[in-house]
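Q: How would the C-alpha coordinates look for this protein?
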Amino acid sequence: MTPKTFLFYTIIPLFLLASCKDTTNAKNVAVQPQKRKVVDSVSVEDKKKKEKEKFVLTEDNAIEFFFNYNKTLKENTVTLTTNFGDITIELFDDVPYHKANFIYLTRKGYFNDTYFHRIVKNFIIQGGNADNVETGRKRGQIGRYLLPPDTRKGHKHHRGTVSMPSSEIDNPHMLASPFEFFIVVTKPGSYHLDGDYTPFGKVISGMDIVDKINSQPVGQGDWPIQNIYILNAKVTK
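A: Here is the predicted structure in C-alpha coordinate form.
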Protein backbone atom coordinates (compact mmCIF):
# COMPACT_ATOMS: atom_id res chain seq x y z
CA MET A 1 0.00 0.00 0.00
CA THR A 2 1.42 3.37 -0.96
CA PRO A 3 1.58 6.29 1.52
CA LYS A 4 -1.04 8.16 -0.45
CA THR A 5 -3.41 5.23 -0.34
CA PHE A 6 -2.84 4.82 3.40
CA LEU A 7 -3.70 8.49 4.05
CA PHE A 8 -6.86 8.23 1.92
CA TYR A 9 -8.25 5.28 3.87
CA THR A 10 -7.31 6.89 7.20
CA ILE A 11 -8.73 10.38 6.64
CA ILE A 12 -12.01 9.49 4.90
CA PRO A 13 -13.48 7.42 7.81
CA LEU A 14 -12.56 10.17 10.26
CA PHE A 15 -14.29 12.73 8.06
CA LEU A 16 -17.42 10.60 7.78
CA LEU A 17 -17.49 9.99 11.56
CA ALA A 18 -17.24 13.71 12.26
CA SER A 19 -20.05 14.40 9.79
CA CYS A 20 -22.34 11.89 11.51
CA LYS A 21 -21.72 13.45 14.91
CA ASP A 22 -22.50 16.92 13.58
CA THR A 23 -25.77 15.72 12.04
CA THR A 24 -26.91 14.10 15.28
CA ASN A 25 -26.15 17.22 17.29
CA ALA A 26 -27.99 19.37 14.78
CA LYS A 27 -31.10 17.23 15.19
CA ASN A 28 -30.92 17.48 18.96
CA VAL A 29 -30.64 21.26 18.87
CA ALA A 30 -33.57 21.56 16.48
CA VAL A 31 -35.96 19.34 18.47
CA GLN A 32 -35.21 20.27 22.07
CA PRO A 33 -36.45 23.92 22.04
CA GLN A 34 -39.79 22.79 20.56
CA LYS A 35 -40.35 20.42 23.46
CA ARG A 36 -39.59 23.13 26.02
CA LYS A 37 -41.92 25.56 24.29
CA VAL A 38 -44.89 23.16 24.41
CA VAL A 39 -44.33 22.43 28.10
CA ASP A 40 -44.14 26.14 28.91
CA SER A 41 -47.38 26.88 26.98
CA VAL A 42 -49.35 24.17 28.80
CA SER A 43 -47.96 25.35 32.14
CA VAL A 44 -49.17 28.93 31.60
CA GLU A 45 -52.68 27.82 30.60
CA ASP A 46 -52.95 25.48 33.59
CA LYS A 47 -51.80 28.26 35.89
CA LYS A 48 -54.46 30.66 34.56
CA LYS A 49 -57.15 27.98 34.90
CA LYS A 50 -56.17 27.22 38.49
CA GLU A 51 -56.12 30.92 39.42
CA LYS A 52 -59.63 31.33 38.00
CA GLU A 53 -60.89 28.28 39.88
CA LYS A 54 -59.40 29.54 43.16
CA PHE A 55 -61.11 32.96 43.00
CA VAL A 56 -63.24 33.59 46.06
CA LEU A 57 -65.09 36.67 47.22
CA THR A 58 -63.88 38.39 50.39
CA GLU A 59 -64.59 41.53 52.38
CA ASP A 60 -61.72 43.17 50.48
CA ASN A 61 -62.70 42.39 46.90
CA ALA A 62 -66.51 41.92 46.89
CA ILE A 63 -67.56 45.54 46.29
CA GLU A 64 -65.12 46.11 43.44
CA PHE A 65 -66.05 42.76 41.90
CA PHE A 66 -69.81 43.43 41.97
CA PHE A 67 -69.31 47.01 40.75
CA ASN A 68 -67.59 45.68 37.62
CA TYR A 69 -69.83 42.61 37.30
CA ASN A 70 -72.95 44.79 37.29
CA LYS A 71 -71.63 46.66 34.25
CA THR A 72 -71.78 43.44 32.25
CA LEU A 73 -75.40 42.64 33.11
CA LYS A 74 -78.25 43.02 30.65
CA GLU A 75 -80.69 40.84 32.59
CA ASN A 76 -82.69 41.88 35.63
CA THR A 77 -85.09 38.98 36.20
CA VAL A 78 -84.66 35.72 38.10
CA THR A 79 -87.14 32.84 38.32
CA LEU A 80 -87.17 30.54 41.34
CA THR A 81 -88.69 27.13 40.76
CA THR A 82 -89.99 25.72 44.05
CA ASN A 83 -91.87 22.53 44.88
CA PHE A 84 -94.99 24.76 45.10
CA GLY A 85 -94.49 26.57 41.79
CA ASP A 86 -92.51 29.39 40.17
CA ILE A 87 -91.75 32.83 41.60
CA THR A 88 -90.35 35.47 39.23
CA ILE A 89 -88.42 38.40 40.66
CA GLU A 90 -87.53 41.65 38.92
CA LEU A 91 -84.33 43.20 40.33
CA PHE A 92 -83.91 46.96 40.82
CA ASP A 93 -81.22 48.51 38.60
CA ASP A 94 -80.42 51.28 41.09
CA VAL A 95 -79.33 48.83 43.81
CA PRO A 96 -76.32 47.55 41.84
CA TYR A 97 -74.36 45.53 44.40
CA HIS A 98 -77.35 43.56 45.66
CA LYS A 99 -78.69 43.00 42.15
CA ALA A 100 -75.29 41.83 40.87
CA ASN A 101 -74.86 39.60 43.91
CA PHE A 102 -78.23 37.88 43.37
CA ILE A 103 -77.56 37.24 39.68
CA TYR A 104 -74.02 36.05 40.38
CA LEU A 105 -75.20 33.54 42.99
CA THR A 106 -77.97 32.40 40.65
CA ARG A 107 -75.53 31.74 37.82
CA LYS A 108 -73.16 29.94 40.19
CA GLY A 109 -76.04 27.57 41.03
CA TYR A 110 -75.98 28.56 44.68
CA PHE A 111 -79.76 28.71 45.22
CA ASN A 112 -80.40 25.31 43.63
CA ASP A 113 -81.53 22.82 46.30
CA THR A 114 -81.70 25.40 49.08
CA TYR A 115 -84.87 26.01 51.10
CA PHE A 116 -87.35 28.64 52.11
CA HIS A 117 -86.16 27.95 55.62
CA ARG A 118 -88.04 30.59 57.61
CA ILE A 119 -91.75 31.43 57.52
CA VAL A 120 -93.31 34.12 59.68
CA LYS A 121 -97.07 34.12 59.19
CA ASN A 122 -98.48 37.18 57.41
CA PHE A 123 -95.03 38.77 57.43
CA ILE A 124 -92.25 37.18 55.35
CA ILE A 125 -90.85 34.04 53.79
CA GLN A 126 -87.06 33.77 53.86
CA GLY A 127 -84.90 31.68 51.52
CA GLY A 128 -81.33 30.86 50.53
CA ASN A 129 -80.22 28.53 53.31
CA ALA A 130 -80.31 24.78 53.96
CA ASP A 131 -79.12 22.35 56.60
CA ASN A 132 -77.16 20.22 54.15
CA VAL A 133 -73.46 19.79 53.45
CA GLU A 134 -73.73 20.87 49.81
CA THR A 135 -74.98 24.38 50.65
CA GLY A 136 -72.11 24.89 53.08
CA ARG A 137 -69.67 23.67 50.46
CA LYS A 138 -71.01 26.11 47.86
CA ARG A 139 -70.75 29.01 50.30
CA GLY A 140 -67.15 28.10 50.99
CA GLN A 141 -66.29 28.01 47.29
CA ILE A 142 -67.99 31.35 46.56
CA GLY A 143 -66.47 33.18 49.53
CA ARG A 144 -67.12 34.93 52.81
CA TYR A 145 -68.34 38.53 52.58
CA LEU A 146 -71.14 40.94 53.52
CA LEU A 147 -72.79 43.72 51.54
CA PRO A 148 -73.32 47.30 52.76
CA PRO A 149 -76.94 48.46 53.16
CA ASP A 150 -78.36 50.55 50.32
CA THR A 151 -81.55 52.01 51.77
CA ARG A 152 -81.68 55.51 50.26
CA LYS A 153 -83.04 54.71 46.79
CA GLY A 154 -86.66 55.16 47.86
CA HIS A 155 -87.65 51.49 47.72
CA LYS A 156 -90.03 50.46 50.48
CA HIS A 157 -91.02 47.10 51.87
CA HIS A 158 -94.33 46.81 50.04
CA ARG A 159 -96.03 43.43 49.72
CA GLY A 160 -93.98 41.37 47.26
CA THR A 161 -90.75 43.27 47.89
CA VAL A 162 -87.59 41.15 47.91
CA SER A 163 -85.07 42.31 50.48
CA MET A 164 -81.84 41.12 52.08
CA PRO A 165 -81.56 40.27 55.79
CA SER A 166 -78.63 41.51 57.84
CA SER A 167 -76.04 39.20 59.30
CA GLU A 168 -76.62 38.37 62.96
CA ILE A 169 -72.92 38.06 63.81
CA ASP A 170 -71.22 41.18 65.26
CA ASN A 171 -72.92 43.50 62.80
CA PRO A 172 -73.65 47.00 64.19
CA HIS A 173 -73.86 48.50 60.67
CA MET A 174 -76.59 46.10 59.49
CA LEU A 175 -74.44 44.68 56.69
CA ALA A 176 -76.44 42.31 54.52
CA SER A 177 -76.04 38.54 54.49
CA PRO A 178 -75.56 37.97 50.72
CA PHE A 179 -76.71 34.35 50.51
CA GLU A 180 -80.22 34.90 51.88
CA PHE A 181 -83.28 36.96 50.97
CA PHE A 182 -86.83 37.46 52.15
CA ILE A 183 -90.12 38.31 50.46
CA VAL A 184 -92.68 40.53 52.19
CA VAL A 185 -96.15 38.98 52.50
CA THR A 186 -97.85 41.64 54.65
CA LYS A 187 -100.66 43.71 53.09
CA PRO A 188 -100.00 46.46 52.14
CA GLY A 189 -96.40 46.06 53.37
CA SER A 190 -94.00 45.94 56.33
CA TYR A 191 -92.76 49.50 56.37
CA HIS A 192 -91.10 49.26 59.77
CA LEU A 193 -88.29 47.46 57.91
CA ASP A 194 -87.52 50.54 55.78
CA GLY A 195 -84.15 52.05 56.54
CA ASP A 196 -82.74 48.91 58.13
CA TYR A 197 -82.86 46.41 55.26
CA THR A 198 -82.20 46.77 51.54
CA PRO A 199 -85.04 46.10 49.06
CA PHE A 200 -83.42 44.96 45.80
CA GLY A 201 -86.34 43.56 43.82
CA LYS A 202 -90.02 42.67 43.68
CA VAL A 203 -92.14 39.66 42.77
CA ILE A 204 -93.76 40.20 39.36
CA SER A 205 -95.22 36.70 39.03
CA GLY A 206 -96.04 34.02 41.56
CA MET A 207 -97.31 35.95 44.61
CA ASP A 208 -99.90 33.20 44.96
CA ILE A 209 -96.99 30.78 45.41
CA VAL A 210 -95.45 33.10 48.02
CA ASP A 211 -98.77 33.14 49.92
CA LYS A 212 -99.05 29.36 49.70
CA ILE A 213 -95.56 28.95 51.13
CA ASN A 214 -96.37 31.44 53.89
CA SER A 215 -99.39 29.35 54.90
CA GLN A 216 -97.38 26.17 55.56
CA PRO A 217 -97.10 24.90 59.16
CA VAL A 218 -93.89 25.72 61.01
CA GLY A 219 -92.04 24.42 64.02
CA GLN A 220 -89.47 25.88 66.34
CA GLY A 221 -87.51 28.83 64.95
CA ASP A 222 -90.10 29.43 62.20
CA TRP A 223 -88.62 26.52 60.21
CA PRO A 224 -91.28 24.80 58.07
CA ILE A 225 -92.23 21.34 59.28
CA GLN A 226 -91.89 20.07 55.71
CA ASN A 227 -88.93 21.34 53.67
CA ILE A 228 -89.86 23.89 51.00
CA TYR A 229 -87.30 23.55 48.23
CA ILE A 230 -85.90 26.04 45.76
CA LEU A 231 -85.30 23.37 43.15
CA ASN A 232 -83.73 25.69 40.63
CA ALA A 233 -82.97 29.38 40.12
CA LYS A 234 -82.17 30.88 36.72
CA VAL A 235 -81.70 34.27 35.13
CA THR A 236 -84.65 34.61 32.78
CA LYS A 237 -84.27 38.00 31.10
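Residues 3-39 have pLDDT under 50 and may be disordered.

The chain has two domains: 1-54, 62-235.

Upvote if useful.
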